[in-house]
Design brief:
The chain is 34% helix and 17% strand. The protein contains three helices and four strands. Strand 2 and strand 3 form a beta hairpin. The longest helix is centred in the N-terminal third of the chain and has 14 residues, at 12-25.
C-alpha cells in the first residue's frame, strides 16, 4: 500500500477530487483518505509514480510517506475521543493509546 501526505488537501471536495484522480488510473484501487491527517493510502496495481502524477494533475502536492508512520498518524485519537496520547479515560488501569 502506498501512502501519501497531501498538505493542500483541506476538505471533502479535495478528498473527492483526489479519489477520482486515483480511480482514473486504477478503477479497482482501494483508497483511504484522512482529511484531518492529510493522508491518502492507496492499494493498487498501478505504479506509485502514476499515482503521484494523477494526484498532481488534480492540482495537489502529494509527498510519499512511510506506511508505518502513516498508519500510526491515521489511527491517533480514533479510540480516544479527542484525548491526547497518554491521557487516561479515568477507568482504573486505563490509558489512551498505550
Amino acid at each position: 500500500m502506498a501512502t501519501f501526505r497531501v498538505p493542500d488537501m483541506t476538505c471533502g471536495h479535495c478528498a473527492s477530487a483526489i479519489t477520482k484522480a486515483v480511480a482514473s488510473i486504477d478503477k479497482a484501487a482501494r483508497i483511504e483518505v484522512s482529511v484531518p491527517h492529510k493522508l491518502v493510502s492507496v492499494q493498487s496495481t498501478a505504479d506509485e509514480t502514476e499515482l503521484l502524477d494523477a494526484i498532481r494533475e488534480a492540482g495537489y502536492s502529494p509527498e510519499r510517506v512511510d506506511a508505518a508512520p502513516a498508519r500510526q498518524a491515521a489511527s491517533a485519537g480514533c479510540c480516544c475521543a479527542g484525548r491526547s496520547a497518554g491521557q487516561s479515560s479515568g477507568a482504573p488501569g486505563s490509558s489512551c493509546c498505550g
